[in-house]
Amino acid sequence: MKRSLFLYLAKKFLYLCIMLWLISLITFGAIHMAPNSFFAAGGLNPNMTPEAIDHLKSVYGLDKPLWLQYSDWLRSMLSLDFGVSFASGNPVIEEIKARIGVTLGINIVSMVLVFFLSFYFGIRSALWGGLYEGSVKQLSLLSYAMPSFYLALLLIWILGLELGWFPMAGIEGLEPKAGPAKWFDIAWHLTLPVAVVVFTGFGSLTLYIRSLVREILKSDYLFFARARGLEEKILIRRYIYPNLMPFVVTILGLSLPGLLGGSVILEQIFSIDGMGLLFYQSALSRDYPVIMGILVVGAFLTLLGNMIADAVLLVIDPHRRR
């Protein structure tokens, strides 16, 4: 049994390495096939001579053949060295480390709230039915259809501009604070972005969980459990939660890439200096090392999420092992 588990995890790790290599190859090729470049005429300084631009390309190794550039970048990537940013001159890994914390913080808090709300409303609406189920369904459909950028602008206008309850941009006030007051100030500034992510994210998951619970309620074992007169909380804990967990773990694994990739628009609107804004600015300036570094980190999170989900599913259901 231990040997089969080891072989299964080894195959999964090999699959992760192969897929990460293929993604890095496709990312590198797509970036270098894109029109124009950071070093195009006028990209840095309209007064720069072609000789100066050629010198910069040699400094960054862009005068080498593409296959040699890729092999050098791949070797450096294995040691988490994604090169140097064309725009700032700082190492790409330092640019990512300086901004990844706020993006992960916003999205992890939002994801926890989304799962909590989706579980509560999805299960309760399926169990209670009637007007409650109809109200939850309508709210979920509104959440599913609501564009995040529109809701963000709406909250900024009403709660920020008209009522003045929340800050409209940034993650800290103009006057720096220390200790608990600093964390309270950050939480206050990030309330609106988190609210946008939670409201636009919980609807589809709530409808999905409601549909799953309705299917579980049709099962024979739950019919007999109800016939025995078990309380609702016991039904949820013993029968509904265990049958929901495999589906939820799969969704959770697929949600990990969104921790980095889903913040581009919101961070631009709320002027939050995170990974999304960094990716947007790098794309505008064609800062290829930063773009490739962010894409590889996102791809790694995607594959890592799938591996974690598979490992948890093995613990829940060992019969999935092959």
Can you characterise this structure?
The structure is a single chain. The chain is mainly α and 322 residues long. It has a domain at 102-286: MetI-like fold (Orthogonal Bundle). The chain is built from 14 helices and no strands. It has helices at 2-33, 50-59, 66-78, 92-128, 130-145, 148-162, 180-189, 191-217, 220-227, 232-255, 258-261, 264-269, 275-285, 288-316. The radius of gyration is 24 Å and the shape is globular. The N and C termini lie close together (11 Å).
Which fold name is given in CATH as the topology of the domain at 102-286?
MetI-like fold
Helix content: over 70%
Overall pLDDT metric: 78
Low-pLDDT stretches are none
Oligomer: single chain
Topology pattern, helix = H, strand = E: HHHHHHHHHHHHHH
List the SSEs and their pairings.
Blueprint lengths: L1 H32 L16 H10 L6 H13 L13 H37 L1 H16 L2 H15 L17 H10 L1 H27 L2 H8 L4 H24 L2 H4 L2 H6 L5 H11 L2 H29 L6
